[in-house]
Automatic annotation (TrEMBL), chain A:
It is found in: Cell membrane. The keyword Cell wall biogenesis/degradation does not apply. It comes from the Bacteria. It comes from Myroides pelagicus. It is a single-pass membrane protein; Single-pass type II membrane protein. This is Biopolymer transporter ExbD. It holds the Pfam family ExbD. GO terms for cellular component: plasma membrane. Keywords: Cell membrane, Membrane, Protein transport, Transmembrane, Transmembrane helix, Transport. InterPro entries: ExbD. The keyword Lyase does not apply.
From TrEMBL, chain B:
This is Biopolymer transporter ExbD. GO terms for biological process: protein transport. Residues 1-20 are annotated as: Disordered. Belongs to the ExbD/TolR family. It comes from Myroides pelagicus. It comes from the Bacteria. One of its GO terms (molecular function) is transmembrane transporter activity. GO terms for cellular component: plasma membrane. Pfam families: ExbD. It is found in: Cell membrane.
Amino acid sequence: MAKGKMKKKSMRVDMTAMCDVSFLLLTFFVLTSTAKLPEPLPVDTPNSTVQTKLPESNLATVTIGEGKVFFGVLGKEDRKATLEKMGERYNMTFSEEEKQAFSYLEGIGSPMNELKGFLSLPADVRTKQSAAQKGIPTDSLDNQLKDWVQCARIVAKEKNSLVLNVAIKGDAEEAYPQVKKVMDILQEQRVNKFFLVTGLRNEDF
Amino acid sequence: MAELNTGGDDKGKKVRSKKQNSGVDLTAMVDLAFLLITFFMLTTSMNKPQSMNLAMPDKSEEVPQEEKIKVDENRTLTVLIGGDNKMKWFMGMPTTPLEGPTESTYGKEGIRKILLNKNKEAKAYSQDVEKGLIVIIKASENATYNNLIDILDEMAIANIGTYAIVDITPEEVEMLGEN
């Protein structure tokens, strides 16, 4: 009888401390990880062996795919401020709801005259139709991309007194002239340093 | 670990059941917690996208022709990128190339060997480790963004310090055989 009891006791390990620690770690990782927002325009980035990481703040991303150009800034407050600046430039006023809706968007691809309509859509419809937007005009006559980049840079300079980093996220199959056009627009504003977003290629390449 | 209470059958029933209730079995909970930790740990580090830094020459101010930096044609290699993943390279000036134009391919067996070789030769020529090969990248209208990234990646692999992306000229488009 006594022997049997001893055996049963040693079978059981006290898990309380382990459970505490693991849940503490779990909470930490849940809180530090950022939820991945849906991409405005899904693109298939080309691969490279270079392993530098993108900056995590103070970044504007120009997405190029399917012949369209999308633009986005990181940070909710910066997004709102950029939209206000753009509104001033195009004589448009945005309501608080529209600004709120805009601040949740990773990127935008509508010309200014269609932006209000896009922002007034319900959130779920907006996510679905995101890739169907026309893209930001980049023609020399109606160069809205230039204004977007300029506004974002002014916001970064005035609010955070930082020089904005610009990343280009292009689709692998995108034609070179389209990418060149975006680079030229950026270079006109003396943005001579870009981050080209790439995927990971295996070592053996 | 997991103990089943199959109902008492002997005399020490009261004492035993009391002891078992004192501890809750946490094994499953810990399992779950660790599974979630692993998931969050892996997703947070994988989320960050990679990027490639690219610095373009400033072209806002027009530099007078005489003050433009002269580059040695013996150290200059031009890579022409065309459509259908085609590529050609030559040394020196486009009008009087020292070598080439030769067709090449992307990857290990193609342009990389040439770049590594030429970089070595250029260093030997200039007698200076700092002054290696200068690569000029010119992409035609038919090239894709993927081609551009591939060639920039080759620059990083072959450790080429000086390279630039320049607009293609009509003569060079002809050299590629595209019109």
